[in-house]
Amino acid sequence: MLDEPxxxxxxxxxxxxxxxxxxxxxxxxxxxxxxxxxxxxYLDDHPELWRxxxxxxxxxxxxxxxxxxxxxxxxxxxxxxxxxxxxxDLAGPAPTTLEQLLVDRVVACWLQVHYSDAAVAQVADPxxxxxxxxxxxxxxxxxxxxxxxxxxxxxxxxxxPAVQPAVPRLLNDASTGATDAAATAVPPPSPADEVDAxxxxxxxxxFNPPDPPLPDLDRYRERSxxxxxxxTP
Amino acid sequence: xxxxxxGKRRYYYESVRVEGRVVKHYFGSGILASLTEHYSSxxxxxxxxxxxxxxxERNRLEPLAVLMxxxxxxxxxxxxxxxxxxxxxxxxxxxxxxxxxxxxxxT
Lengths: 233, 107
Known about the structure:
heterodimer; A: mainly alpha; 7 helices; B: alpha+beta; two-stranded antiparallel sheet
């Protein structure tokens, strides 16, 4: 069962900050560019916004673990470790606060999906109505999970620079005939190359292999004799 | 619904709702009445058990559903604020860098 029956109440400060933030978002949505600097400062100056949501995400995750494991302490410990490992894998080496928050949300959704899957499979002697409800719950959990992953991926893609793999070009250069790994390594993109995100030109490492040499047609003709279609002047 | 006394004998009736009206079905007092009563009570018990199971599950998951909805809303708000502050805007449900097209054309 849940440790707390309802959501954790937000502090008055956090509630006020949320209201202000909503107002700023509404203005920014309406195209008010002047609000953007204030929004940046506001996000930096109000850590309670992040803290409250972070606490909520962890609380949700722990609640799901409680619901799934019940009184089984081994299962609880196992799930706690599994989710911690999953979160660490997703977050990577240096996650931002928001990334960490979204990772916790993804993990919570992952737990919900697994609970729903198990519920569909484990309902003892289900009636059609119970089966339909379980399937509906499973569907909703799946949709929420995919949405959480999508949000996390979008944030990562937009706010982090594209990773440039330091893969040297190990192709034979036809002109020199040499394999020059260091000289042909693709340089990282300049900041000027970074354009918008919607139709963003993702800087990819594009390999342009040299065209293969054309077959030696003269030698082929000498060997096979004159073509019957050839017209002799 | 059930057994009703008529004089010295008892007869079994079941009331059902048909097109908004309550209609009584008569099953007599013999073996058919006993069997009908037995199966009806079984069906009622199964239906009550099902409703109990659904209610229990809902009571168990309802607080979590509320929390998940709160979490979704908070995350959406913070993502939107962060991306707006970073100079993106939402266009047809996808985020784009504000003014990037103009910058590209100028360059």
